Amino acid sequence: MKKGDHLFLVDGSGFIFRAFHAIPPLTRKSDGLPVNAVSGFCNMLWKLLTDARDTSVGVTPTHFAVIFDYSSKTFRNALYDQYKANRTAPPEELVPQFGLIRHATRAFNLPCIEMEGFEADDLIATYARLAEEAGGDVTIVSSDKDLMQLVTSCVSMYDSMKDKQIGIAEVIEKWGVPPEKMVDLQALTGDSTDNVPGIPGIGPKTAAQLLADYGDLDTLLSRAGEIKQAKRRENIVGNAELARLSRELVRLKNDVPVPMALEELHLEPQDGPKLIAFLKAMEFTTLTRRVAAATDTDAEAVEAASVPVEWGAAAHGPDLDKGELSGQGGAGGTPANAASGESAEDAAAVFAAKPPSPVETALTPERLADERANAFGAAKIDCEAYLTLRDLPALEAFIAAARDSGVVAFDTETNSLDAMRADLVGFSLAYADLAADPSGLAIRAAYVPLLHKQGLGDLLGGGMVEGQIPVGQALGALKTLLEDETVLKVAQNLKYDYLVMKRHGVTLRGFDDTMLMSYVTDAGAGNHGMDVLSERWLNHQPIAYKDVAGSGKSMVTFDHVPIDRATAYAAEDADVTLRLWFVLKARLAAKRLNTVYERLERPLVPVLADMEARGISIDRQILSRLSGELAQKAAAFEHEIYALAGESFNIGSPKQLGDILFGRMGLPGASKTRTGQWSTSAQVLEDLAAAGHELPRKIVDWRQLTKLKSTYTDALPSFVHPETHRVHTSFAMAATTTGRLSSSEPNLQNIPIRTAEGRKIRTAFIATPGHKLISADYSQIELRVLAHVAEIPQLRQAFADGIDIHAMTASEMFGVPVDGMPSEIRRRAKAINFGIIYGISAFGLANQLSIERSEAGDYIKRYFERFPGIRDYMEATKAFARENGYVETIFGRRAHYPEIRSSNPSMRAFNERAAINAPIQGSAADIIRRAMVRMEPALVEAGLEARVRMLLQVHDELIFEVEDEDVTRAIPVITSIMEDAALPALNLRVPLKVEARAAQNWDEAH
């Protein structure tokens, strides 16, 4: 290699996991072999080579190599045995693709390099040094921050997914330090994905500032005593050796005895027949055609190559937890057919061309899940064996046994469904006696009564039931268990119990939630309530609440339930919850959904509980005034409605309204409900209004006003807490199929933002004196996600350039210049943009835009012609859903649509539209969940945790209450966390944009 030459070094392992998670499941038609990662890898490599050789597009390489990780064990494990110990085994469907990808690299006529004992990054570092010393330039094709320490004036990086060059300036812009200080920065921050410890509490921004102040890590550690912040000083002084160890773990080795010399990396022309033979073996017809055309090869004359399938090559797979991605398919254990230490060739000799038979298979996650479900489904539950713990020694003994088991189910019993107002009446515990039965079937459960009353309470001559542990003593014993992170606590709908206990001075730590486990594995496939799950997985019907507390007018609160009946009910809840945990924990691993649960669901529980506890202030006077205004407007509508109808009637009565519209007036589109009445649903009225009928339009408007009045302006004051004087909504985590949160008591998700009345209601949500509300809202996040998943170049470019996306769409569709575009044209494009996400029909679009259905159909047709990738995405998504019964978000969350194969056309069409929308809406929901989980640590790092409080989440928006003087500091922190929420799991192909404003009330801030 000589001066002027240019070496491309491709991070092959990075390409693998990007390809695997970017491409939906894909199998070879002839035998069902999974090949999605191979397909993505080949397409990415082909595009890179094509673009690189086009001098008008990019740099022309003279030398080229693809570098892979050989295995997860390297010299770093000798330095620190916990290095990457958090890694899970790769998904079984990826295992056979590792070897195929190496065959693909050779088919491209490219060096395929890996070396036992070293990571791919070390080989890249060595080749980069050798090339630079020889006078050449280097481009490292990767976006991995670990490689940024290699960037120099002659060595740059290229993120092929974002088409972005990364040089010295970009590293400084991203991390606040030049490349030569990246090792020190990572030594301070650590890396959770690689299990590099770093110094606790030091994030990238703090690390960058420390290095700016002290120059380098050694100087910082030697002068740590000078740091003014006491907690930071103690952390650095106490963890200095961890920082030095971390530096050795993250520093790349650039003197590896590489297996191929630089000159052997010379880029050779593509061998058309050789590459096509491989592609035909994989059955990649589209790429075969492209390669044939580019290499002037007659593809028909080339026979498919014989490519062995290395089913045991897991030991040579990439580090799939790198960048958080592996958990989307991580099994939580080693796949049964994973090779252990042998070479790919040895493994191929054993498993060549076919997977091992079931007889050869060890205990897989799937088999474990089946065995657990069968065992617990057949076991009997004995409610007579439950204990009532009435004194402190008995409770302490039970807690000690539960702690020894390592896993304990916990449930609270209260006198209210409102966690912010409920009194703790009692609690139940359950643990598995593993000494009696290692399978976990011998479960001991008990109930601890605290505040049960005799009769109907003090007013009727009752009082406290004797033989109950004083609340303070019971909580003192329970606190040591619930706050012990070494003991796993299991609950059903844990957020409620978490908040109740938090109000009583106990913070649950180390927990699992069976409701969320079920939600992750089966969203859309059924209810996730405990009774339903018990019948589904345990074949057991639990005691119903009404059977112990009564129903209707005779229902009593739980504090009036006799203790013997309370024990049977409450202890059974804990028992059932623990049994469900055994079953559902195994199902999470079997379904490869651990990461969705661990990163999107479980950590959100305390975040939402804290938000619910904080609440938000409202201005009752504003609501009272608005209530009067809405009443006057509704009354005016009523007079107009009566005049149009020719008589007075009860507008709120569907029967009377139907009789007038369809019986007397004979309007079209009449249909009847199951009860035989005319249907007057919102859709029916909207259709009639769109057809030009004025009376239905007035009724729609009247309904909207009266609903706003009853739901918000009249009802919100009743939700003000008597002690906090704030409104505390409750967030439901498992209520939607797509992962979106919902709220209730009161529902703050459905306040309309596009109507004047809705905006006025938002003015009643206010900041307390000395504070401001900050509204941070994702801009067009679902369209951005669509541009990412559907590969729409025009949309991606427009978002990258910050162009008005609706104006751009209108320009593309209608040939109208963006400058001076009529607002009506832009409005139509906006309606289509958002409508497409929800699978809008020509009929629906015609109603929305008040145009003929044929014209709306032409718009949709033209839209798909201009953006064919969207139709491809929609058709591919429907096909995937029909085959699998579910779709996935970009982070691996599954939304099930079992009715997508329904013989009922309308039901099938509804499920198809929902399946198309779910990956878009669900991915947006996942992104904001990730932002919420990361927000508190970011605020702590910025020193704002006591001055900035996250209060509400409403779809794509987060609302905070911030002290006046901290607004300017808070907004950049909030915005940064939200815009980078997808990282490092995923580099979106379009940037996320967040608009954040501060004001005295919610409407002004939005």
Automatic annotation (TrEMBL):
GO biological process: DNA-templated DNA replication; double-strand break repair
Region span, Disordered: 315-358
Gene3D superfamilies per record: 3.30.70.370, 5' to 3' exonuclease, C-terminal subdomain, 5'-nuclease, Ribonuclease H-like superfamily/Ribonuclease H, Taq DNA Polymerase, Chain T, domain 4
Claim: Nuclease is one of the keywords in the record: yes
Reactions mediated catalytically: DNA(n) + a 2'-deoxyribonucleoside 5'-triphosphate = DNA(n+1) + diphosphate
Biased composition (Low complexity): 336-353
Official protein name in the record: DNA polymerase I
Annotated organism of origin: Xaviernesmea oryzae
Gene: polA
